[in-house]
Design a protein that fits this description.
insulin-like growth factor binding; Ig_sub; 4-stranded mixed β-sheet; Kazal-type serine protease inhibitor domain-containing protein 1; about 30% strand; 5 helices
Length: about 300
């Protein structure tokens, strides 16, 4: 048989075993089968065991192929290639899981493996260089640009240049309104994308002074990330007082432009917190813990 001449047939054996289980034990629950195996078996069932004579005029036209097209296992018809992160055939045969698309390579994924797990071959993008599209948007890698271009061919997207598009800052995650009790800490966060990289400054409404100024119980920190061309800033107020209550604003700017976002800090005394019937606004009483001292390899 054509496939067995190419494979050692472990996948085909598993398929036959699975189908036999289904045929002879209909009253039993079917074993759980990973999606990527189901996909491979479906390919076997649809394509059969060997290749017929190639008639290109009878080939269906593949549609919606975000990663481009590749020849099928018989090198006859075009079919959709596998996207980044999809399971693929490590030997590049396109027999079982499928073949990776443009600018993608099938590699073993060795990351985030639990004890006893076996690494799976996945399509990996060959370049992590950002590109600037003709739509003025930055794509953090070529493969993401290709997916968008293939999904919307009518837009005729092209690459203007390698590297990100110059853009004014965009606040991806603004500071949130929060409340806390006197003596506790309060933290505001502000995550910004921009190229060139943006600078972040903090001010309290009613004052033109940049924080922290000379106030020892207020501090600011900055770090690149979490993604490329992003920067995150934090404003921390230690042992908040009633006088700290107010609106705090994050200003992000580069040579292209400036953007601002604000949030309110509400400060309660312990007596106010314990008052019967006191209704608190739907503010956060604490923010997620930011690892402001951690390392970030995506700082550009």
């Amino acid at each position: 048989m054509y496939r067995c001449a190419t494979w050692t047939c472990p996948e085909l054996f598993l398929l036959l075993l699975y189908l036999s289980y289904f045929q002879f034990c209909p009253g039993l629950a079917l074993p759980s089968v990973p999606d990527y195996l189901q996909r491979g078996w479906q390919r076997l069932l649809e394509e059969g065991e060997n290749c017929a004579d190639c008639r290109p005029e009878e080939c269906p036209t593949p549609r919606g192929c975000l990663a481009g097209v590749v020849l099928d296992t018989c090198d006859c018809c075009l079919e959709c290639a596998n996207l980044e992160g999809q399971i693929c055939d490590l030997d590049n045969t396109n027999h079982f899981y499928g073949k990776c698309g443009d600018n993608l390579e099938c590699q073993l994924d060795m990351g985030d493996l639990s004890h006893g797990e076996v690494p799976e071959p996945q399509c990996i993008c060959l370049t992590n260089t950002a590109v600037c599209g003709s739509d003025g948007k930055t794509y953090l890698q070529l493969c993401k640009f290709k997916e968008t271009a293939n999904a919307q061919p009518e837009r005729n997207l092209t690459i203007v240049h390698e590297g990100p598009c110059e853009s004014a800052p965009q606040i991806l995650s603004p500071p949130y309104d929060i409340w806390n009790v006197t003596g506790k800490d309060a933290i505001f966060g502000c995550e910004v994308f921009a190229y060139p990289m943006a600078s972040i400054e903090w001010k309290k409404e009613g004052s033109e002074m940049l924080l922290p100024g000379d106030d020892p119980h207020i501090s600011v920190q900055f770090r690149g990330g979490p993604l490329k061309y992003e920067v995150t800033g934090w404003l921390q107020i230690q042992s908040v007082r009633v006088t700290d209550e107010g609106i705090y604003r994050c200003f992000a700017r580069n040579k292209i432009g400036e953007v601002v976002a604000g949030a309110t800090l509400m400060v309660l005394t312990p007596d106010q917190l314990n008052m019967t019937g006191l209704t608190l606004p739907k503010f956060r009483n604490q923010l997620q813990e930011y690892d402001a001292d951690g390392e970030d390899s995506d700082y550009y």
